[in-house]
Amino acid sequence: MTPVLDLLAAPPDLLALGEPTHGESAFLQIRNEIFLSLAAHGYRAIAVESDQAAGLVADDFVRGADGVTLEHALTEGFSHGFGAYPANRDLLVRMREWNAGRPAAERLTFHGFDAPLEIEGTPSPRRYLLQVCDFLGVDRSAEIDDLVGADARWSDTAAIWEPGRSVGRSADAQRLRVLADDLLMELHRHAPRRPEGWRAAFVRATAAVAVLRYHAAAAAPLGRQERFAHLVGVRDALMAENLLAIRAAEAHRGPTLVFAHNRHLQRDPSTMTMAGTEVTWSSAGAIVGALLGDRYAVVVGSLGASPALGIAAPAPATYEGKLQRHGHLPRCVRATEVESGEQRTHDYRYFPLDQATVAHADAVLHIPTGTGPALLADRILALPGVEQVVASEENGAPEGAWGDRFFHVGPDRRQPFATIVEHDVPGFDEDSRLDRPGVFRLNVDLGRVEFTRLFGFPPRDFDAHRHEFDFARLDTVLPHPGYARYGFASIVMPGPQVLPEVDRLLAVAHARAVDRHQRATRRTTAPQG
């Protein structure tokens, strides 16, 4: 794939990489590769579509903070459930590995840039205000508790739909906004004396302000269509403020990559249907782009098919269909080189490319297809003489293995040359964390020679090297955690960008299986003397 920076007229301070949908892991996996390659060119931070205050926890892990485990960083360091995505685990682990032993100026930083809210729900500002007070060493807890009252009245989702139920324009809420503003002023007054931890306190203070602003917007007495347009516009304006603050903090260290849905990053007006209402607003990207000019660049994401989301291949006349003609591997192209097409049918799973979005982008990242067990199985079955056995109750497989796939050449079913598994084997094979939703692993029989060439040691020495590998990492050829000593390798969730290497390894394993089958055939058909 062409490096992103090679497609831009000038290197930006803030490079935006968009995805057209949430839930297709291929975008996150390719994002990880792009970010680590950009780190080699001076990029020092990534900002993702997740709660900025929660992101402090993920950044603590990335920085190697004692006491912050990976599991804690994933559960507490992301909002919107994004910590469950396996590729986000990889991102944090790889950033932490990069940072180990490097000087502070070269270390990578993780940021969330969303406000701590969902479009249809917003929490109480209590904890953010108390955290700022704790940093400042002031006790205003009684006043805050009195004004906030019960948290339930803030988190009431019905208040988003019914302005009269919102607390956002009450006298208590207005006094809290003044209090939050006072705390922000105090933070700046204390900055010379309290630089350590100041940035985190500032993020929490702005989170409190954001929550109070959104509650006020939810209480506005507007008509339905105008109301939803206002709410999504306020959210993106808060995102834009956070991005500008992140850039101010990172300006002396290097450029920043931002990753989010296209609708939050595109320069042209964003549209979305909510509760049967079409709303239009200016995205965070449109706001930041207007303020930064050519210091902001955006690469919008485009998707062909997604087995994980049930999205079929696009019609040939659409933008995505025309991009699809150029092969099965991801590609990044200048927006000016994208052929005009029809707009793909839109549903809740995917926001298609259109003329305006492409015209206002700098480049387009097109992923022809996400990968999945069925897609990989089709690639294996296309090899000559291959048959597949799917573990099931009918063929006597244990329940924990049902759905796993085994690929053979010839009638001997004792030694598959490749398998696709979606389940851990408790007590034996759990290191790949196949218990995570949607996670699968391809295993291939490489034999001693290819195994040794790949890993630098023969299969028999695997136990001495086991500690060197993170078996849950995606897109990486690793020794099989259970069968490496027999020459097996594995790849967890290989993304579309690694399909050429997958095909090469499958060819090696298939050739070994064919050779075994031919030798067995010669033995059984040889004349008996």
UniProtKB/TrEMBL annotation:
GO terms for biological process: response to antibiotic. CDD domains: Ere-like. It comes from the Bacteria. PANTHER family: ESTERASE, PUTATIVE (AFU_ORTHOLOGUE AFUA_1G05850)-RELATED. This is Erythromycin esterase. It comes from Micromonospora endophytica.
